[in-house]
Amino acid sequence: MNVLRLSIFLPDGPVPGWVVRLLDVCGAEPGVILVGVLYDAQPMAAADWAEQVDRLLFDRGASSLDPVSLELPGLLPVWRAEAGVAPARWLAERACDVLLDLRPRPTPIPQLAAEHWMLSIAGRPATDAGAGAQPVVGGDATTRVVLERVGGGAILDTSVGATCEFSIRRNRRRALAKGIGMVRRALRRMRTQVPPPPQRDTLPAAAV
Q1: Contact call for residues 125 and 148 (beta carbons, < 8 A)
Q2: Is the residue at 206 inside a domain?
Q3: pLDDT single digits (tens) 167-179
Q4: Lower Cβ count inside 10 Å, N or C end of the chain?
Q5: How many domains is the chain partitioned into structurally?
Q6: 41/87 Cα distance (integer angstroms)
Q7: Per-residue pLDDT tens over the stretch 46-80
Q8: What pTM, to 2 d.p., does this model score?
Q9: Does 160 reside within a domain?
């Protein structure tokens, strides 16, 4: 496969800054082309009081977790539910190979021909308000990041790193740094048809 055609499914409205970083990383990968963006009808949940306190204490200043307005190229096709076209058909018209689903609650899409992936942190989708929280609250020593297929749950890549014991936001940022790299490598493997790596335990990644 010389060219891999990628689409992204996003929550409505502003998205975390790390999503912009992810799109930049995917767009810089040779042979990967972003062919469309889909928007869900539901926005991301607002940060609760506990996360707001966490931000004030441990994630001051500009943060990749803060919401931003995503600026897209003017000619990039965009799908919304009110368009009246089924998402599977819309993606097929663009010959999409991979749909990366970054909604807080990814669900299978009927008749979708493309690969359908999601990124999760400690069992929650990466844009879920509780992503990365359970290991901190529960005192778990490690946090697991998984790239998997939506629906069947087949794991494409997984990584385990040390939990930041005192901050949910810092723990989420560490995990996202790993997750962004996992998405990039999975796209590269699919394009070059290289088998996935075995599960691995790794040291914490630099925060995004």
Answers
A1: no
A2: no
A3: 999 999 999 999 9
A4: N
A5: 1
A6: 13
A7: 888 788 888 888 888 889 999 999 988 888 999 99
A8: 0.89
A9: yes
Residue type, 101: D
In a domain, 72, yes or no: yes
Range of the domain at 192: 4-201
User: Which string of DSSP letters, residue by residue, matches 2-61?
Assistant: --EEEEEEEEES-EEHHHHHHHHHHHHSTTEEEEEEEEEEEEPPPP-HHHHHHHHHHS-S
Query: What are the φ/ψ torsions at residue 125 (nearest 5 degrees)?
Result: -55, 145
Quick one: tokens of 158? 């997984």
Distance CA 114, CA 155 (A): 16
Sign of CA dihedral 180, 196, 96, 34: positive
Question: Rounded CA gap, 119 and 158, in Å?
Answer: 10
What CATH code is carried by the domain that includes residue 160?
3.40.50.170
DSSP string, the chain: ---EEEEEEEEES-EEHHHHHHHHHHHHSTTEEEEEEEEEEEEPPPP-HHHHHHHHHHS-SS-TTSEEPPP--TTS-EEEGGG-S-HHHHHHHTT-SEEEE-SSS----TT--SEEEEEEETTEETTSTTTTHHHHHHT-SEEEEEEEETTT--EEEEEEEE--TT-HHHHHHHHHHHHHHHHHHHHHHHHHTPPPPPPEE-PPPPP-
